[in-house]
Design a protein that fits this description.
The chain is an alpha/beta fold. It has a six-stranded mixed beta sheet with strand order 1-5-6-4-2-3.
Length: 575
């Protein structure tokens, strides 16, 4: 009894530690980076439903469909706490945290160990962290999809059909990404049903029980989209998402398919390696649930690859089932590790492999930076990498021959998990919280608002205080070419208006894109150039110099620069 209580206390403590770590990764410095254009379009749509609606933007200006669920919930956040980048991302961050603990719904079926491991894998996934820090409906969709999947596959509760329908309806109302995700989930379940033995009549009856309630899903979606009856106009957002999804088939605007596949090894190396192990384990055990989960991974990636308007966020719906497979493999490995005596042999092997990895990484870094050899000498990079691999394999073979193949396998597995976790965590932290989050060099964001956006707002506030004594009361004219990100950044400037290209500029401050051709203002205005955003500057699916990008995130990026003009008689931008 005491042993059981101690186990429960340790499990609760581990969940508390996970909650703190996952919350920090999702909510720390939520203002960074400034909202990009896609995020800002979502936030501006919400802003238009509040008294603080921006005169610089209308929903008709946006090419992005709006997540109904995000709009309903974030409207409440804006009215309670005001508008900011952090408030715009608060709902996705909270649901990203909910996503981490979703496996607890089927803890009895999964087992306490696998449930805990799955939660940790979801909590530290770089892709899910980035999704949680992105304004929009992607994490809301993910929660609905995952709840429906785990209840359908693992739960034996008689009322699960109702909850599955509610979860699917919630996902459907959360954005156009849900349509692709729901189609992928539907194809997966059809494949699972076709593989089901005809003798399993009980399972068929349970499946019928679930399908009996599916009609509730569109009703739930309509109720959520309407703001539970308080905002009936919101229903149009639901149909706009559907129309935008169909529009994506005829108007390609997405990233290249290989970019989606590259995210898995470059950011999700731990989940990918363990997920492959989980798939092999499911095949060896003839685990039908494992086959269904693997099918969901493959179907999600294939659907995302063939959809012309694909975005990096679509990888989320492959990462989630891959995490379920990864947890089964990691639990099996941990059971093996628990049986291993922590002697000098296993410590020595793990240390040897780690030292080889670190040595190889440090030298690869030196090669990439040009400290040891010219960067152009790529043949030496390949030669060096091959030499490290040969030495590692030779060392492991000698260990297996001299001591034990079982110990060799366990030492290698421990090291691979440690290295993959370190690589994934570093990539995830840099992608979401590091300086590179505000650059156009991460695969998650084809376009990113830079620190220059915040600097621009700061300069405008200083100019406003200098002229009016108020931080956001200065009269301001902005080019009609304004982007969603800039419109969101200028939301508090009540005297801002779009410039009429047919009329002479009269405002004391003018904002125009660099390509605007404004030589006529040079006589009376003082100008300053500010870079407010970046987007990918490479041709192809991934950066050309892959090693440089992997180590330093060194890749070409195209800057979007705007000109800030202020009347020379009133302001001095040099101060």
């Amino acid at each position: 009894m005491k042993k059981k209580l101690a186990t429960i206390r340790i499990e609760v403590l581990l969940y508390l530690l996970l909650a703190m770590a996952a919350a920090w990764l999702r909510m720390a410095n939520l203002e960074w980076p400034p909202l990009d254009n896609a995020e800002a379009a979502q936030a501006l749509a919400v802003l238009q439903e509040t008294p603080a609606a921006s005169s610089l933007w209308t929903e008709n200006d946006s090419i992005h469909s709006i997540s109904s669920t995000y709009k309903v919930l974030t409207t409440a956040v804006f009215q309670l706490f005001g508008t900011s980048d952090a408030c715009a991302r608060l709902i996705p961050a909270l649901f990203g945290l909910v996503l981490v603990f979703t496996p607890l719904l089927v803890r009895e079926q999964l087992g306490s160990a696998r449930t805990l491991v799955t939660a940790y894998i979801l909590g530290f996934s770089p892709t899910l962290i980035a999704a949680s820090r992105t304004a929009g409906g992607i994490t809301l969709t993910a929660v609905g999809i995952l709840v429906a999947f785990v209840l359908m596959l693992y739960s034996d509760n008689k009322a699960r059909g109702i909850w599955i329908a509610i979860a699917l309806g919630f996902a459907l109302a959360s954005g156009e990404e849900a349509i692709t995700a729901l189609i992928g989930l539907g194809i997966t379940l059809v494949v699972a049903w076709l593989q089901q033995p005809a003798s399993e009549e009980e399972d068929e009856q349970e499946s019928d029980g679930v399908s009996r309630y599916l009609w509730l899903a569109p009703i739930v979606a309509l109720v959520i989209a309407s703001g539970f009856g308080f905002h009936l106009r919101g229903i149009s957002d639901l149909f706009d998402s559907l129309a935008n999804w169909f529009h994506g088939w005829t108007h390609p605007r997405g990233v290249q398919p290989l970019t989606l596949w590259a995210i898995l090894p470059f950011y999700e190396s731990l989940i990918l390696v363990l997920g492959i192990g989980g798939a092999i384990l499911a095949w060896r055990r003839q685990n039908r649930r494992g086959f269904v989960t693997l099918s969901w991974v493959l179907v999600s990636m294939v659907l995302a690859s063939i959809y012309p308007a694909r975005q990096p966020s679509y990888v989320v719906f492959a990462v989630i089932p891959l995490a379920l497979l990864a947890s089964s493999a990691l639990v099996a490995l941990m059971e093996q590790w628990a049986e291993t005596h922590l002697g000098t042999e296993i410590i020595g092997l793990v240390s040897m492999i780690l030292v080889a990895f670190i040595f190889g990484y440090l030298n690869l870094t030196a090669f990439s930076s040009g400290a040891l050899l010219p960067v152009e000498d790529s043949s030496m990079l390949l030669l060096f990498a091959g030499a490290v691999v040969v030495l590692l394999v030779a060392g492991i073979l000698l260990f297996g021959l001299g001591w034990s193949w079982e110990l060799a396998w366990r030492g290698v597995s421990i090291t691979v998990v440690m290295v993959c976790f370190a690589f994934s965590f570093a990539a995830g932290y840099g992608q979401s919280l590091g300086p590179n989050a505000g650059t156009g060099r991460e695969l998650w964001r084809p376009q990113a608002s830079t620190s220059g956006m915040s600097m621009l707002v700061g300069v405008l506030e200083n100019l406003s205080v200098a002229q009016t004594g108020c931080r956001d009361c200065v009269e301001l004219e902005v080019s009609p070419d304004i982007t969603p990100g800039l419109a969101w950044a200028l939301r508090d400037f009540s005297q801002a208006r779009l410039a009429d290209p047919l009329l002479e500029v009269q405002a004391p401050i003018v904002l125009m894109p660099e390509y605007g051709g404004l030589s006529g203002l040079a006589n009376t205005y003082t100008g300053q150039v500010i870079s407010i955003s970046e987007r990918w500057g490479w041709n192809g699916s991934i950066p050309r110099y892959l090693v440089d990008w992997l180590i330093y995130r060194d890749a070409p990026a195209l800057q979007e620069r705007w000109l800030l003009f202020a009347l020379s008689d009133n302001f001095d931008l040099s101060e």
